[in-house]
């Protein structure tokens, strides 16, 4: 027999607003706007064909019937949460990893199948962010950032070194030969918004400071810059760790002999008290081995 149920989003909005006594607080908890909470509550009231709140200027109060309804809804959500937690425990541990988007897309995700083959019971939940570690909510088991840096309460482990040097597609090299740094005058230089001085620093190190290219294109993420290089749009400053697979497969080439710019290593950051947890130690050992494979290739 089909159940007659209202929208789950509407029930969540009602339960949070009723429990917290505020639409604003409910919006904060649910990560939505106050207007969205109000709309969902209205939808639930329309579905029930009865009011849930008595509205008094800047505050709201539950109707007597809504208080009884809340007691039942709250129990239902508690049971769902408990069942979900139990299922997650039985299905295996969840490892929550936070990493920069470009690193995740270009290095970590292509290798995750290897980790899953080694440890099929560990489920990796990957979130991308460029926020500083100290600004992140304490919701992650492993955080990957540049370094090595020191943070109170965290252990830092470098696992992947990299440098940066000019890269482009073989097709671009055929159209516009690039043999010396001076030849960049005829090319489009690809910039990344978050690293605006990369090309200036490299050109200075190459002895052609102030060189004016034919064109310049700035993109807001490193992975977009690298994609533009792959598509033959221009020459990018490529981080060696993130382009190793493209170089090995001939999708990108390094047309100039040097120099290369040093860059910060990729490091794992884990709370001191959680160092011995098995899913974490297995993941750290795996990325360390993968990093060494890259370094020796």
In short, what is this structure?
The chain is α/β, with parallel strands linked by helices.
Please describe the structure with a list of short key phrases separated by commas or semicolons.
D-Maltodextrin-Binding Protein, domain 2; 5-stranded mixed beta sheet; 10 helices; 3 domains; Arc Repressor Mutant, subunit A; single chain; alpha/beta; 297 residues
Oligomer status:
single chain
Summarize the main sheet. 5 strands, mixed
**Rg calc:** 26 Å
Number of distinct helices: 10
> What's the overall geometry?
elongated
Strand content: 15-25%
- CATH architecture descriptor name of the largest domain: 3-Layer(aba) Sandwich
SSE-based structural type: alpha/beta
Uncertain ranges: none
The overall pLDDT average reads 87
How many independent structural domains?
Answer: 3
Stated plainly, the CATH topology of the largest domain is called: D-Maltodextrin-Binding Protein, domain 2
Instruction: Specify the helix fraction band.
Output: 40-55%
- The fourth-level CATH homologous superfamily of the largest domain is Periplasmic binding protein-like II
Strand tally: 12
Descriptive report:
The protein has 10 helices and 12 strands. The radius of gyration is 26 Å and the shape is elongated. It folds into 3 domains: 8-90, Orthogonal Bundle (Arc Repressor Mutant, subunit A); 92-161 and 265-296, D-Maltodextrin-Binding Protein, domain 2, CATH 3.40.190.10; 163-262, D-Maltodextrin-Binding Protein, domain 2, CATH 3.40.190. A 5-stranded mixed sheet has the order 4-3-5-12-6, covered by helices on one side. Strands 9-8-10-7-11 form a 5-stranded mixed sheet. A two-stranded antiparallel ribbon has the order 1-2. It is 45% helix and 21% strand. It has 297 residues and is α/β, with parallel strands linked by helices.
């Amino acid at each position: 027999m089909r159940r007659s149920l209202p929208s789950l989003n509407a029930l969540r909005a009602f339960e949070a607003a009723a429990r917290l006594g505020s639409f604003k607080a409910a919006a904060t908890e649910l990560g939505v706007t106050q207007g969205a909470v109000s709309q969902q509550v209205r939808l639930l009231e329309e579905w029930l064909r009865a009011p849930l709140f008595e509205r008094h200027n800047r505050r709201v109060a539950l109707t007597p019937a809504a208080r009884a309804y809340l007691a039942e809804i709250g129990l239902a959500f508690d049971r769902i949460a408990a069942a979900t937690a139990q299922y997650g425990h039985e299905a295996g541990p969840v490892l929550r990893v936070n990493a920069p988007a470009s690193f995740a897309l270009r290095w970590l995700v292509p290798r995750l199948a290897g980790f899953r083959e080694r440890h099929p019971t560990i489920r990796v939940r990957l979130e991308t962010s460029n926020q500083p570690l100290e600004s992140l909510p304490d919701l992650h088991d492993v955080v990957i950032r540049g370094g090595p840096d020191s943070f109170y309460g965290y252990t830092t482990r470098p696992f992947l070194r990299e440098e940066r040097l000019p890269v482009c597609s073989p097709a671009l090299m055929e159209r516009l030969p690039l043999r010396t740094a001076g030849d960049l005058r005829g090319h489009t230089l690809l910039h990344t918004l978050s690293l605006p001085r990369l090309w200036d620093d490299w050109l200075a190190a190459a002895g052609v400071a102030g060189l004016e290219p034919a064109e310049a294109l700035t993109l807001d993420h490193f992975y977009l810059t690298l994609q533009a290089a792959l598509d033959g749009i221009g020459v990018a400053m490529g981080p060696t760790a993130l382009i190793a697979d493209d170089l090995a497969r001939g999708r990108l080439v390094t047309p100039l002999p040097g120099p290369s710019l040093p860059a910060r290593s990729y490091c794992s950051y884990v709370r001191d008290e959680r160092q011995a947890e098995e899913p974490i130690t297995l993941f750290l050992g795996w990325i360390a081995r993968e990093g060494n494979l890259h370094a020796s290739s």
